[in-house]
Amino acid sequence: MIIISIVSIDKRDFLPSKTLYLLRAGFKGRTIKADEYMIDLANKIYLEAIKLVDSKVLLRTYGIHDVSPLNLPESFSRCLEVTLFVSTLGKRIDDKINEYSNNGKTLQATLLDAWGSESVESINERVDERIREKMRRESPTKKGTRRFSPGYGSVSILENIKILKKLGCDFVDAKENSGVLIPVKSTTCMIGWC
To answer: Contact, 18 vs 46, CB < 8 A?
Structure first.
């Protein structure tokens, strides 16, 4: 087992594309247009969100037989190793989304939720790039599958529970009956190595 441990994340890693943030929030079109109030609010939420992030990533690479009984995607069938990782923005962003929702500030909650979703995906993309770069240096012949998260295809979201347990993660949890991660702005991912 290769342990890469907790990955250092800095601001550049979690800042989402403003265009993707606005598209996820429901703004439409190639060039995003909105009235001045909406643009000001979207910018305010973007800046507020940055201060709420307490991002962490934990990852490990295992031999394929060491992740049993984890249900892997079919595309991993020829892989010899699997990297598992969990990423989170932390609890404060969830708390702020809930605060906005509970106080009837639906628009602010929606914008912050969209920002959080794009931000955690931005972290995943950076981590993915770093893992692939490290693997290329260590073993240039290894080929990685696409990054995959439970809840898609034939891999149940309940696999989140097994992944967190396997990683020994203590900063993200999963609801036992649904597999939903807590904090919500968290993900588990896997990459197979062939």
So the answer is: yes
Domain that holds residue 96: 2-193
In this structure, are residues 71 and 6 in contact, taking their beta carbons and an 8 Å threshold?
no
User: What's the predicted TM-score (pTM) here?
Assistant: 0.89
How remote is the C-alpha of 107 from its chain's centroid? 23
Over the stretch 21-48, which tens digit does the pLDDT of each residue have?
988 988 876 556 667 888 899 999 999 9
Give the DSSP letter of residue 193: E
pLDDT value at residue 1: 38
> How many structural domains is the chain composed of?
1
Q: What is the DSSP letter of 78?
A: T
Q: How many CA atoms lie within 13 A of 169 on its CB side?
A: 30
> What is the CATH number for 71?
3.40.109.40
